[in-house]
Amino acid sequence: MGRDHAFVESGVGESDFDRRIFGHRLRHYRKRAGLTLKAVGEIVDRPSPYLSQLENGHTEPRLSMINSLADALGCSPGDLMSSDAPNRRAELELALEAAQSDRRTGELNLPYIRPSAKLPDEVLEHIVNLHAALDVAEKAATYRPGDEARRANAELRQSMRDQNNYFADIETAAAEVLAAAEYPGVGPVSERMLMDLAGRMGFNIERVQDIPRSTRSVSDLRNRTIYIPQRNSLSTRSARSVVLQTIGHFVLKHQDSDDFSEYVRQRVESNYFAAAVLAPEAAAVDFLKAAHEARDISVEDLKEVFYISYEMAAHRLTNLATKHLDLSLHFLRSDDEGVIWKAYENDGVPLPAEPDGTIEGQRLCREWGTRQAFESEDAYSLHYQYTDTAHGEFWCVTYVEVDRSPLDAITVGTTGEQAMYFRGSDTMRLTVSKCPDGLCCRQPSDRQAERWRRAAWPSARDRSHVVSGLPTAGVPFERFPGVDMVEVFEFLDRHEQ
Length: 497
Known about the structure:
- The protein is an alpha+beta fold.
- The chain folds into 3 domains: about 1-140, 434 Repressor (Amino-terminal Domain) (Orthogonal Bundle), CATH 1.10.260; about 145-280, Arc Repressor Mutant, subunit A; about 285-445, Beta-Lactamase.
- It has 20 helices and 9 strands.
- The protein has helices at about 20-30, 35-45, 50-55, 65-75, 75-80, 90-100, 105, 120-140, 145-160, 170-180, 190-200, 235-250, 260-280, 280-295, 300-305, 310-325, 370-375, 440, 445-450, 485-495, and strands spanning about 205-210, 220, 225-230, 330-335, 340-345, 385-390, 390-400, 410-415, 430.
- Strands 5-4-8-7-6-9 form a 6-stranded mixed sheet, sandwiched between helices.
- Strand 7 (about 390-400) and strand 8 (about 410-415) form a beta hairpin.
């Protein structure tokens, strides 16, 4: 990732600074103060042409100059350095500049329009909205639902595999946050530490009953409040994760984007940050090294020691095992039909995939542990199993989540050679998978096919989860796929009032 994710309690980092927006804000506060460029220049001891360059976004000021300008204009440095346009006019001018840098402007040989003070606001609105409509029309003409999501997931999964699912810069950011919250170095992160962390970021946490159904949390950036569901619908353990996932976006300095790949990457990073805070690297590695030496690594133990969900504990194991224990692993989340929701591997396990690398929505072999668990005598106990495949033997443990409907499962596994370091490696369960060979489990026998070909008419079960998070064709600037933004805005209106 290569970005600076240092924890900053106040102020704006360099990556947030935009000279054009700064120039608009400087002009806005100068005019509000009723001062000319010459008058401001005399106060800060700088010539008018230099200040004009600043207002037009052609040069970048030093921090000392920003402080001097703020004093001269009767505002704070933060007012000048905010990343928001100061008014609708400035927002339109910035949008026009961005639109005219688009490739289509050159392709059509359109003349450059300078957004001078003489250009009426309604003309700017007209031009900017025409460009926005053209974007929507172009995207709709070439859009195929799911393409962007499949490509984004495949690329991100390959990136995670290349670095063994270990993000050093996020680990550093989490360590700095924990140090600021005075984490003692062992055990779970307390509720007090989480509230202190939220406060340091300037946020208040509020539980509400009417959280929009399409969200896990809603952040009111204007009033610095993070809303999460009440305890009757979101347990304390889950709430800790949701709060940290939300805060993670701000600690990691995520920016608004209408790019779905960026949206997916930010989700993964914020989830990683939450896990890195709730199961701190140093403490978790010490715990795992002791379990490794005892040949008794268990996701269940990691879950209980750090008071996190089984899924987060499984993710955390994949974050740290290759880096610190030299173990390769695979992770799967799938439903009771074996349909994959998400997966990760760096141990060579043969996951079913489309030619483009897509695995989401693919169905696992019926012989794999993650499907066998649902058919075992006790589906709610941990299910340990070895599976012999064309790519070698693999061991896994599957945990069925009983609080979900329909049921789904979390599976963590490794190669047969490395299984000895994990609890449950002494299991006698062994299956053989020949998938993708259709004779393994994907096609009925000749006898069954002949008997039932014209006598069976099944109706498929609805699977809204498969498409609920995908981008929607024809919707401009859909920053949060799967979220009902009308419902979110109505919610924020209610709570602000």
